Amino acid sequence: MHFQWYPGHMTKAKRMMQENIKLIDLVIELVDARAPLASRNPDIDELGKQKSRLILLNKADLAEERWNDAWKAYFEEQGFFCVKVNSKKGGGLKSIQAVIQEACREKIERDRKRGILNRPVRAMVVGIPNVGKSTFINSLAGKAAAKTGNKPGVTKGKQWIRLNKNVELLDTPGILWPKFEDQSVGLKLAFIGSIKDEILNIEELGMEFIRFACREYPGVLAEKYGISEAEDAYVCLNGIAENRHCLVRGNELDTEKAAALLMDDFRNGRLGRLTLEYPV
After folding, report:
1. What distance, in Å, lies between the first and last C-alpha atoms of the chain?
2. Could you tell me which residue, 9 or 61, shows the higher pLDDT?
3. What is the largest CA-CA distance in the chain?
4. What is the pTM of this model?
5. DSSP secondary structure string, 44-99?
6. Are 202 and 259 spatial neighbours (Cβ–Cβ below 8 Å)?
7. Beta bridge partners of 210
């Protein structure tokens, strides 16, 4: 499968972030805990290189805990602050305010010495589409401050959100980068729903996921769908269609519907906690 998706609004969003970075003390980058490297936009490192950095392993409840811990250690070794969070259910959010203050301690100290008191820390919240930025902001702010949607590309413009007297957040639209050098990155992003399903061949995507699951998590699909994990991914997909009564025109199996159902089950954690990549 080949992945190429860079709508015009993403160029505009990137320019907006470049213009606003000078107002910012801290870059808070959300990544998907199931694919923390694949879901990092390489442009963000360049953009935030002079700034304090906090990486949030979001959707940590959907990834294996041992790999969450390994990824947290990996990012901390690179000099980032890192917190495991589950924005939907509020997991890990209590510690965020303290980590923000810690990450910006030098800046706060500098302000104090110059007689600037009580200026809030300004943090830019960044991440690729569908990693849960808006859900994170809403959970942290305790109100629907940013629009949320479970499809990529809901946040279109920038929004400042005041959390309290100490912290202001700048929400930004999710941006991908123009070209995936490594197609396996595109595949992982398609798995987690950061590339719109409408532009993908969902059957092919489903079969790629079946190959991954049978290799890395043998038995998971067999248990969930009552199928035999055959060598052939298409045979498995047919088995899922049969098990879930996905039919078209009478009794013909609807493998497209079965693939969409499979991806939905994975994205929403109904297959259990699965991690797509591991730190090297």
Report:
1. 25
2. 61
3. 76
4. 0.88
5. HHHHTTTSEEEEEEETGGGS-HHHHHHHHHHHHHTT-EEEE-BTTTTBTGGGHHHH
6. yes
7. none
Contact by Cβ (8 Å): 131, 58: yes
Structure tokens at 192: 């987690």
List, for residues 2-38, the tens digit of each pLDDT value. 555 555 566 777 787 888 888 899 999 999 999 999 9
- Token pair of 78, please? 């690179």
Structural element, H or E, at residue 170: strand 167-171
Question: Residue 231: which pLDDT band, with cuts at 50, 70 and 90?
Answer: confident
Question: What's CA 151's distance to the chain center, in Å?
Answer: 12
Is the predicted pLDDT of residue 153 greater than 50, yes or no?
A: no
Is 195 in contact with 186 (CB distance < 8 Å)? Answer: yes
* Residue 40 near residue 248, CB atoms below 8 Å: no
**Structure token pair of residue 11:** 């160029």
Q: At what angle do helices 202-216 and 233-243 cross, to 10 degrees?
A: 100
pLDDT confidence tier of residue 196, bands split at 50, 70 and 90? confident
Is the model's pLDDT at 139 over the cut of 80?
yes
Helix spans in 157-244 (H)? 183-192, 202-216, 220-225, 233-243
